[in-house]
Every structure is written in C-alpha cells, then in structure tokens.
User: What shape does this take?
Amino acid sequence: MHAEERRAITKERIASGRLPIPRWISVHPNSGYMGRCDGCGDGIEAGGYTFTVLLRDEVTFHFHDECFDVYNTFGYRSR
Assistant: This one.
C-alpha cells in the first residue's frame, strides 16, 4: 500500500468513528512495533518507522509514520 492510500484510509477511519479522535497522553516514536497499523490496517514491517500512541483511556495504538501524521493532525486540518 502506498503512503497516500494509508493516509486516506486513516482519515476515513477517524471521520467514521472507527478510530477515536486523537486525545493521546504519550507517544513513542520509532517504537519497533511489528504487526498491523491501527490507522490503515496495513502491515508494519521490521525496520519501518512507527509510532506507539497511548490514549487517555489506557488504549494503545500503533501507526506507520504517515498514518500517525494524519491521526495527530486530524482535528487541525481535516475537519
């Protein structure tokens, strides 16, 4: 999946309510997580730059770099 596709899917998931609006309390860049991105649903491979985000309700999400960018700035430029 290309970065722009990931961005679009992440934005749609936030807008539809399938991913909560960002209200994070901590972010861990380049966390080394391998698995599925909570933004776009695509796989995160070893060596990819990732973000782990802890929300106020003690829920943790993992994002590709570009998906985190969409998630982190959703309220500022996407509404």
Observations:
- The chain has a mean pLDDT of 86.
- The radius of gyration is 11 Å.
